[in-house]
Fold this sequence. Notes:
This protein has 604 residues and is mostly beta strands. It has helices spanning 57-60, 116-125, 218-221, 341-349, 375-378, 384-389, 391-397, 540-543; strands spanning 2-3, 6-7, 30-35, 68-75, 85-92, 127-135, 141-144, 150-152, 157-161, 180-182, 190-192, 198-201, 274-277, 287-289, 297-302, 310-317, 324-332, 352-359, 364-369, 406-411, 418-422, 446-452, 461-469, 493-498, 504-508, 521-525, 529-531, 534-536, 545-549, 555-561, 568-573, 590-596.
Amino acid sequence: SDNGGRTAAKLTFDSIAGGPEDLVRVPPGYNMQVMLPWGTPLNGVAPTFNGDGTNTAAEQEVQIGSNHDGMKFYPLPAGSNTSDHGLLVINHEYSNSTLFAGDGRSEDADGKPTDPDEVRKDIYAHGVSVVEMVRGMNGEWSMANTGFNRRITAATPIDLAGPVAGTDLVVTAYDATGMSTRGTVNNCGRGFTPWGTYLATEENFQGYQTTQEDPVPEEKSRYGLSATGFGYQWAAVAGDPSEQNGEFARWDTTPNAATAALDYRNAANTFGWLVEIDPYDPTSRPVKRTGMGRILHEGAEPGRVFEGRPIAWYMSDDNRFDYFYKYVSNANWDPADANGGLQAGSKYLDNGRLYVAKFAEDGTGEWVELDISVPALAARFTSQAEVLTYARIAADLVGATPMDRPEWSTTDPNTGEIYLTLTNNTRRSEGDENPANPRANNSHGHIIRLAEANDDPAATSFTWDIFVFGSNASADPSFNISGLTLDNEFGSPDGLWFDARGVLWIQTDNGAPLDSDSNDQMLAVIPAGLEGDRLIRPETQAQLKRFFVGPAGCEVTGVDMTPDYRTMFVNIQHPGGSFPDGPGNRPRSATVIISREDGGEIAL
Ligand code: FEO
Ligand code: CA
Ligand code: CA
Ligand code: CA
């Protein structure tokens, strides 16, 4: 049922049952292979992973990181549609105690780390992996190593670019010119560009950076900075004789006027950005693109790209009652830039406009520009660099719509509509609802859909509706608004991706209770298929089907396919049982590779 590369309106697999077992489920007729678990050596051979957590920091630095998240496949060679050879780029969101030998890291009585080399290992488990993959004649994938494989970690030198680079806002003891910083953390949803680069998102950086200021200034408190963060407290080992270039000190942002070498008061301003990485150039330095704004970044996917027009990226800030943003390039898309690497990044990502979404009751909405010329922003900030650095505060001031935790967004290739997951928000109380977030105690989340006015990436108005509400099947119809059944009940939508055929893939994180007691999962639906030239909108709830169920305790996050739609990559994060090595082994996040037994296209 292929239609000139676009889809007919039907999925060809039957919805599979959800369940709580410690295993991966895919539909009958599909194969799966598990690869690249945390600790896999990047050269495929050494240093070998030690299942007891005894690998050193230096070993972790050349092994796959922990807690896989957003991911994208980049065919080799660059610009080709090769489907049996390419680079997988994988985010590693965070770390946990399984990294360390015994029962966890060494700590003092206050729960602060005491062993610099353990902290270093923790730092290296974060970031991004670039891994070369090849498919053999038998259909099995394996790692290759012709020079592309690398780790970017929470210690890697990274350039700053765009309006905030070089300003006082990002001057630290690491770089007094404010043109660079060190490391990326909490890389969650994925982003990408039309010119072959990857955008790693920096989500919960406030879990790592701390401050002892009392009171915490608004510029830090609005981003959640606190005295202890999530407890990592890497700065506790600062000053160790082995410390290099503030690798530990920079995680404490308390002003230190007395000791310039320890003054990292602005270090928090060097996190919370989108980080552009060129996977095809293993020697290139990643770049934080400050023009796109500083929030707790989740996904960052472009909308439809048109020659001669600006490009829009849709960007989420994943906190309860935070916002949905759009960045629009000043430059118009030139297809000659299709393999332009980081130079194209400078052209499109360093000069643009930042907007935040305001949803109205009548199904319309407005993109409000966050520009220093807006009176409410001019009254609070002195420069556009401040507006971008404190984009959350700017969005508060213009009255953006508080959402139920915006996670990934993605664009329907058949219609240009933008879909956004709102994962859940149990703190939204009755009376606090708004049109776009209409359920109090929204335990199961929903997916909202926007259409730009005139299909224009630079539009400042849009229309919207709610595509589907998460729920368990037996919930009262006042909550199970979309009429989900045991075949497609879900909660906490997070990862979201339209493949180029128009199939929408929905992944879940920490699903609220389901009647099937199911683990987290991935579902598929074709919201708008084409039959001939005719646009078909199937009965959504009948067509929403469960394709994949993860092992116990995991989150299913990160998905991509090869250009021929015959191989799919799905990440398993924080499995809670013994996946993938089996009973008696520590669980490890990993990538599951799915194909059809008959070699056909997945799902169609
Ligand atoms: Fe890391 Fe917003 O999930
Ligand atoms: Ca997520
Ligand atoms: Ca999530
Ligand atoms: Ca997660």
